[in-house]
Amino acid sequence: MLTYLVRRLILVLPVAFGVSVICFLLVQIAPGDPLTAIMPVDATAEEQAVMRAAYGLDKPLPVQYAIWIGNLLQGDMGKSIATGRPVASEVFGAVQNSLLLAVSAAIIAFPIGTALGFLAGYFRDTWADRAVTALSITGVSVPNYWLGIVLVIIFSVNLGWLPSMGAGPGGSQSWAWDWAHMRHLILPAVTLAVVPIGIVAHTVRALAGDILTMDFVQALYAKGMSRFDVLRHVARNAAATALSVMGLQLGYLLGGSILIEAVFNWPGSGFLLSNAIFQRDLPLLQGTILVLALFFVTMNLIVDVAQAAIDPRIQRT
Amino acid sequence: MSKLGKGFSALATAAAVFCGTLAQAQGTLRVGMTAADIPLTTGQTDQGGEGMRFMGYTVYDSLIEWDLTSADKPSVLIPGLATEWSVGEDELTWTFKLREGVTFHDGSPLTAEVVVWNLDKLLDDTSEQYDSRQAAQGKSRIPAVASYEAVDDLTLTITTKAPDATLPYQLAWILMSSKANWEALDKDWEKVALQPSGTGPWKLTEFVPRERAVLVPNTEYWDETRIPQLDELVLIPLPEPNARSAALMSGQVDWIEAPAPDTIPAMEGNGFVISSNAYPHNWTWHLSRLEGSPWNDIRVRKAANMAIDRESMMPLLGGLMVPAKGFLPPSSQWFGNPEFDPSYDLDAARALMQKAGYGPDNRLAVKALISPSGSGQMLPLPMNEFIQQSLAEIWIDVDFMVVEWNQMINLWRAGAADPAVEGAQSINFTYFIQDPFTGLIRHLDCNLIAPNGTNWGHYCDDEMQGLFDQIKTTFDPEEQNAVLQKTHEKYVNDALFLFVTHDVAPRAMSPKVKGFVQAQNWYQNFSSITMDE
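Above: the input entities. Below: the C-alpha cells describing the complete assembly.
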C-alpha cells in the first residue's frame, strides 16, 4: 500500500508542473489587459507603460513564468493586480468558503443519490426505477443557475423564508454554525446538490443493477442470506466505483460552482475566479486556477488511495 | 425669567436633545453596488464612478467638489476643502485657501502641507508615501499639474504646465487622505486600507474585502448640512443583476444600483421605488475619421443620426433613458443651441443618403465594434441591433465585430488605425462626460489621437482645436461656459458621433428610504437619507 501511495505521489509532481504551465499560458492567451482593472480607461499610453513595468508585465512570458513559479515555490503567490491584496489570502479564503458550500452540497447529494440509485437498481424496470431515472436525468439536465434563480424567487422573494445572497449577516469572515449563518447556506447548497444527486443516482443504479445480476449474488441468496445482508455485499462491491465518482463530483462542486456563486453572491472560489477573469487579474487568475487544479489532483489521489484500500486488486494495476 | 419660564425652557431643551438623538438614529441603509469588490479605501478610489460615489465622496473630500444638493439642475463645482481659489497673472500659478478647522477622522488637522503630501502620493514616485495603486487612479486626472507648494498652513499654490482653466475640474477628482493616519499605521497603505482616515462625512469602521464595508457618520464633519442622518451605511458588492434584484426584493438590501430593466415593473408592482435622473453619461458610436471611412461624409453622419427612432428604443430600456439630442444631455449647462436636430426623420435621412450617392441599389457597408456587456453600456446587444435595423432603413448595412468588454477597452485605447480593430469604422462606447476634459476635449483633441490619448477616431480639426484651446485659456467661469456651449454646438452641428441615448442612473430602493435627492451627477449625497421604521 505504501509503495502504491509513493508511486501515486510521485506522479502528482509532473501533473502539478503541467497544471502550472497550462494555468500560466491559458490566462495569457485570453485577449484583454490586466491594467484595465487598475487604471482609468483614459489613462495615457505613457502612464500605462509605467504601470505595466511596475507589475512586471513588460517582461517576456518565459521570464514572467520563471518569476511566478520561483515565487510560488517560496510560498509567495504574488499580489492581485486589481486589489493589491496577497493572492494566497484571497484564494484560500475563497476556497474555504467554496469548500463549505461544496461539502454541504455533497452531504445533501451523496446519500440521496446513493439511496435513490440503490432503489432504482434494486427495483429495476419498475415504476420506481423509471421515476428515479427521470429524476436523475432532470437533475443533470436542468441548468443549475436557472434553478438557483427559481429557488430564490420562491423561497427568498415570495415566501421570505431564506436569504438570497451572501455568507451570513457579517460576511464570511464571521461565519458561525448558527441558524443566522446556516440559513444562507441552504439555497446555494441545495441548488448545487441537484447535479451530483442525478449523477450519483445514475451511477449507483447501474452498478447495483449489474451487481445484482451476478452469480455470487444468487449464491448468497442460495446460502439463505437475508436480503439486507445481500445488499450489504452489493454495496461493498459498488463502493469503489461509486466513491471515485463522488470524489470527482466533489472536485467539480468546488471548482464548478461559478454560476451558483454568482447567483447567490457566495464569496467562494468561483465568484473570485469569474471576477478575476473579467478583470484579467492574471496573478489572481493563475493562483485560483492552480489551487483548484491541485485540489482536483489531490481529490483524485485520495479517491485512488481509498479505492485501493477498499479493493486491494487496484493496487496491483 | 420666571420659574415657569425656566421650567418650559428646560423642558424644551430636553425635548430638543431627545429629538436630536432621534434625528441621529435613523437606521441602516444597505446598498447593493454593481461593483464586484469594495472600492479602494485608501483615498483615491478605483471602480470608476461607483468607487468615487460610495468610497470617495463619502469618506474623503477634495479641494473642490461637486454640488450634489439639487435634482433639478446640473451639478456645478463648489468649494470643498478649499474655500476660494484664483489664478495669477501668469495664468499658471493658482492659489488655494484651505478651509480652517477641518480635521481628519483620526483628529489630525488638514493643512497645506498635508495637501502637498497627498499630491506627492500620486505624482512623485520618489516620495515615501507614493502609492502606485492610488497613482494609477489619480495621476491621469490632473495632467495640468506641474508643481505645488505649501505657502503657509492654509495656503497652497499649484502651478500648471500651461495655462489650463480646467484645473478646478481636475482637482475635483483628487481626494485627501490623512498623513498622520498613514504614519501611525507604519506607513503601510495595506494597513491604511483597513483603517482609512479622510475628512469626509462618513467614517469606515468595517471592511471585509469583496463582501461588505460599513460606514458610520462623522459627527464632527465640517459641513453641518452634510452630517449623515443614518446610523450606518453598509456597502455590499453585488455584481450580478438578478442577485441584486433578488436581494432587494427579499429585504436583504434597501437600495440597489442599476436594476435590470426587465425587473423594474415587478419592483414597482411590489412597492419599491425607482429613482432616476439625467446625468452626464452618453451612449454613442464613436466614428472613425481615418481616410476612407464612410463617416467622413457629413451627410452620412447626419443621415445615420436621423435614422434612429430613439423614442421607440425607450420600451427596450423600460423607459429609463434620455433620447440624445447631442453628445451632452439636453439638460447640460454646456448643451448650447445647436442648429442640427438629430431627431428621427427617415425621409430626410434617406434624402441625405441619396445626395451622398447611396440608395437601395448602392448600399453602404460599415463595420462596428460592440461588446455584449460592460460598465455603463446599458443593454448593448439589443440596442445595437436596434441601430442596425434602423440604419438598414437608409441603406447602411452594419456588420458587427463583437468583443468582450475588457478587450473592447483595449481596442478603444488602441484607436481606429490599430490593426486589432480589423478595420472597424466605429466603436460603441459609453462616456463619463462630467467635466470639460472628459465631456468634450479628450474625444477629439488632435494631441490625444490614439494610442497617445482617447481620440479613437483620429479626428483633427483646426476650428475644434481652437475651441479646446479657448476652453483652457478662459478663466472666467461664465465665459468658459459660453465656449463650452459653442464647442458642443460644433459637436452636434457636424454630427461628429452617432448620438443615441443617455442613461438615467436608475436605482431601486425600498419605500423605507427617505430623503434621497438624486443629483445630476455620477456622485451622490447620502447624508440626507433616513430610513422609515
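Note for the figure: The domain at 92-275+293-310 of chain A is CATH 1.10.3720.10 (MetI-like fold).
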